[in-house]
Histamine N-methyltransferase
Amino acid sequence: MALKCLADDYSRYKKSFQLFLERSSEHQCMRDFIRGVLPDILASIGQGKSNLNILGVGSGAAKTFYVQYKGRSEIDLEIMSQLRLKHPGVNIDNEVVEPSEEMMLNYKALVSKSPNLEHINFNWNKMTASEFENHWRGKKLTKKMDFIHMIQMLYYVADPDATVSFFRSLLNKNGKLMIILVADKNKWGNLLKKYRKQLCQNDISQCVTTGDIKSFLDAKGIKYKNYQLPSQLDITECFKEGDERGELLLDFLTQVLNFSKTAPPDLKKGVMDFLRHPDCSEEGDGKVVFNNMLEVLVLDA
Ligand SMILES: C[S@@+](CC[C@H](N)C(=O)[O-])C[C@H]1O[C@@H](n2cnc3c(N)ncnc32)[C@H](O)[C@@H]1O
C-alpha cells in the first residue's frame, strides 16, 4: 500500500517543519548570508530607480512560529530591511506568491506588527507558482522585477526548471533571481531520490537539489553565481525508538506521514542506515548531526 504524504496533513506538516527548524541551523545560516553577502547583490539592482519591484515565491511566513519562539525576524522582512539599507528612500512594490492561507496570514500579521515598512507596498497573491504564471500570462502583464527570490520552495512544484525559466523571464535587465535549496552535496536529495518509488507518490519534485538546477542552467548557458551555506540538523531523536519528536523529524525528512508507524521494516531500516551513514552525518557526544548544506544560486536576467 502506498505511504501517505506528509503534505496531506497540514497540521502535522506544520509541527514537523517547526521541529525541523528548531533542530537545524538553517535559519541562522540564511540570516548570515542575507546580512553578509546579499547586500552587495542587492546593490547591483535598480540602477538608481526610485521604485523597485520585488517578488517572493513561496514566501509564506513559515518561520513565524519559530520567530515568535526565538524572537527572530522573518526571512523576507530581513531581505526587505537589507534592500532598504542599500536603496534608502526608494519605494518598494512587493508581490507575495503563497498558496497557503495560513502562511499568508502569518506573513500579513508579521507585516502589520513590523515598523519601518512605510515605503513598501505588499500585493498578496494567494496562489501557487503555476497559478501565478497562468494569472500573469492570462492578464498579459508586462511589469518587470528587480529582485525575485524562491527560498526552499522549488521542492513543491511539478517542474522546477520550467518554474525557474518563467520567473527569470520576469526580470528587469539588471534584475536578479535568487534560489535557495538543499545543495547537491547534501545527501537528503539522494535519500529522497533513492527511495522515491517507496516514499509518498505525488507529482511534485521534492528531491530537487541545486545540482539539478545547475545542470539545467549549464545546459541552457544561463549564468549564475553560487554560494554554499553550511547547515546542520540534529537528528539524534530519530534514533530513539518511539520518540515522538524523532518521529516528527523523520516525517519531515522522508515527507511521509507517520513514517515510523507506516513504513515497511526494510524501508525503515534502509532510511535509518542511510541517515546515519558517515557520508550523511557525524556522530559524537551522543549526538547524530546530519550535514544539511544549503546552496544559493543567483541568476542574471
Ligand atoms: C519550506 S516553506 C519555505 C517558506 C519561506 N520561503 C521560508 O524560507 O521560510 C515552503 C513554502 O512554499 C509554499 N509553497 C508550497 N507549494 C507551492 C507552490 N506550488 N508554489 C508556490 N509556493 C508553494 C509553502 O506554502 C511554503 O510557504
Summary: The CA atoms of residues 66 and 72 lie 8 Å apart.
